């Protein structure tokens, strides 16, 4: 016993430095090179985030978009947008770390990336473009989700009372329901906690896209064929000359919206572990995500156009080109709603993070903003509640729902968002940052063709925005509250 008592202290003293060393090693292993908790994301989880962000409500409008553009221009525009989006996403992925894309300092947001590569007033312009777009997307998703939830009730009405029945209804209650769900989910602290929601949302997006594709194929196989043309809708038969022009512009905006994920690319990349290098993993994720979504887009858009022809509805699962089997259409619309619950969070979390970071910097002494209150949640354990986060995020969700109620127009709104984000965020800033980082000489071949691409995309975005604004004005003139179709 005496021997044991005498040796215990000596053992304790000799192991203290090594114990501290082990603890420091463990702490170091749990932190990344920037001192933040170790990131665990992979190219697979990043692909799920991208698919969640990209295969959204955009896929639902593609049959209508192809109908406006026709068999030649429609697929060509789709493929062009997919190529440009992938090319610029690889440029953006290299800008996550600066100055070196592998060993440089991390940049956590799109604005940080622009600050590191360009600086000056362009940072503020980027912030305005990004966050206005993110707000627009969350409003658009509120509209789409409510239409899909309402479509379940409407399809049951048609099934019960016949296709000639008056099944008009208001989508407002479903917007309120969607907002309530988002208020709860918005209390998830940050992007790193959203992988499970994105994977679920990606599965839902595949489900309803496949259902829509399958129903379109079945409709094509039926006797009789829908009227299609190489140039899409016919002037004098389907639309007037001016309507053809405006709808063509709006269709381009809808396709641009279908590829809008550059706004959250940096935030997605910031979830990746550092080996393999984040830019390498992000490029792989972008390739997988864009190839997957483009395949779905071409299939859904082209087969949807073949099924409905020039009369393709704006939303081919809720515009009721389909009536039966009603249970399958109900399931598809439920999948859309679940998917958009997750997609809304993917797009609003960067807004939440930006506002909360700025408020913490501006008022570091405010207990309302900085204090976390530990609360025990059943089946979850301890959860930290921040009163500022609770109040501000709730108000944000309520505001987006209110705007969605005022402008509940699916195609026009998506086209406007797509037009507003495509040029600045998908094309202009990634290319300008690449030119600055790589020090490309002015008027060299690379500089010239990248500038030509930039200016061409600006023109495309402007005409798409013009078509979408005209569509919104037309929709507002026709709109009757509480009797949305």
List the helices and strands and how they pair.
Elements: H1 2-29, H2 43-54, H3 62-93, E1 97-98, E2 105-106, H4 110-117, H5 122-161, H6 172-185, H7 195-221, H8 241-258, H9 262-269, H10 278-308, H11 326-362, H12 367-370, E3 372-377, E4 381-386, H13 387-406, H14 410-437, H15 445-478
Antiparallel strand pairs: 1-2, 3-4
Helix pairs in contact: 2-7, 2-9, 2-10, 3-8, 3-9, 3-10, 3-14, 4-5, 5-6, 5-11, 5-13, 5-14, 6-13, 7-10, 7-11, 8-14, 8-15, 14-15
GO molecular function: glutathione gamma-glutamylcysteinyltransferase activity; metal ion binding; symporter activity
Pfam families: Aa_trans (PF01490)
Biased composition (Basic and acidic residues): 22-34
Verbal overview:
Helix content is 70%, strand content 3%. The chain is mainly α and 485 residues long. Strands 1-2 form a two-stranded antiparallel sheet. A two-stranded antiparallel ribbon has the order 3-4. Mean pLDDT is 82; it is low at 1-15.
- β-strand number: 4
* H and E order: HHHEEHHHHHHHHHEEHHH
Task: Give the class from helix and strand content and strand pairing.
Answer: mainly alpha
Q: Which overall shape is indicated by the principal axes computed on the Cα atoms?
A: globular
Compute the average pLDDT.
Answer: 82
Strand order of the largest sheet: 1-2
The N- and C-terminal alpha carbons lie at a distance of: 87 Å
């Amino acid at each position: 016993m005496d021997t044991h008592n005498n040796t215990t202290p000596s053992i304790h003293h000799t192991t203290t430095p090594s114990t501290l060393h082990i603890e420091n090693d463990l702490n170091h292993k749990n932190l990344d090179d920037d001192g933040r908790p170790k990131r665990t994301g992979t190219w697979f989880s990043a692909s799920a985030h991208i698919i969640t962000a990209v295969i959204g409500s955009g896929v639902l409008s593609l049959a209508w978009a192809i109908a406006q553009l026709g068999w030649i221009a429609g697929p060509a525009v789709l493929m062009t947008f997919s190529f440009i989006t992938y090319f610029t996403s690889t440029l953006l992925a290299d800008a996550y770390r600066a100055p070196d894309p592998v060993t440089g300092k991390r940049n956590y947001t799109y604005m940080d990336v622009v600050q590191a590569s360009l600086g000056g007033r362009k940072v503020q312009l980027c912030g305005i473009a990004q966050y206005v777009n993110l707000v627009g997307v969350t409003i658009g998703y509120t509209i789409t989700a409510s239409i899909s939830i309402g479509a379940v009730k409407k399809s049951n009405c048609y099934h019960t009372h016949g296709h000639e029945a008056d099944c008009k209804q208001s989508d407002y209650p479903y917007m309120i329901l969607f907002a309530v769900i988002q208020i709860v989910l918005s209390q998830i602290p940050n992007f790193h906690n959203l992988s499970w929601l994105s994977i679920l949302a990606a599965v839902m997006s595949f489900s309803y896209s496949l259902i829509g594709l399958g129903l379109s194929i079945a409709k094509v196989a039926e006797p009789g064929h829908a009227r299609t043309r190489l140039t899409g809708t016919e002037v004098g038969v389907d639309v007037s000359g001016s309507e053809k022009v405006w709808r063509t512009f709006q269709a381009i905006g809808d396709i641009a919206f279908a590829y809008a994920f550059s706004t959250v690319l940096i935030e997605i990349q910031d979830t990746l572990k550092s080996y393999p290098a984040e830019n390498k993993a992000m490029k792989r994720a972008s390739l997988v995500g864009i190839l997957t979504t483009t395949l779905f887009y071409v299939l859904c858009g082209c087969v949807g156009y073949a099924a409905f022809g020039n009369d393709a509805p704006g939303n081919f699962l809720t515009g009721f080109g389909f009536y039966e089997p009603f249970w399958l259409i109900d399931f598809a619309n439920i999948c859309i709603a679940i998917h958009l619950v997750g997609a809304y969070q993917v797009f609003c979390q960067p807004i939440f993070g930006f506002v909360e970071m700025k408020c913490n910097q501006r008022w570091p002494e405010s207990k309302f903003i900085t204090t976390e209150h530990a609360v025990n949640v059943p089946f979850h354990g301890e959860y930290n509640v921040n009163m500022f986060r609770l109040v501000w995020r709730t108000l944000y969700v309520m505001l987006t729902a209110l705007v969605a109620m005022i402008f509940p127009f699916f195609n026009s709104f998506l086209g406007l968002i797509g037009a507003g984000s495509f040029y600045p965020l998908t094309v202009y800033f990634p290319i300008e940052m690449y030119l600055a980082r790589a020090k490309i000489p002015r008027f060299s071949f690379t500089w010239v063709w990248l500038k030509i691409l930039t200016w061409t995309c600006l023109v495309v975005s402007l005409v798409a925005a013009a078509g979408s604004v005209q569509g919104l004005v037309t929709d507002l003139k026709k709109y009757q509250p509480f009797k949305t179709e």
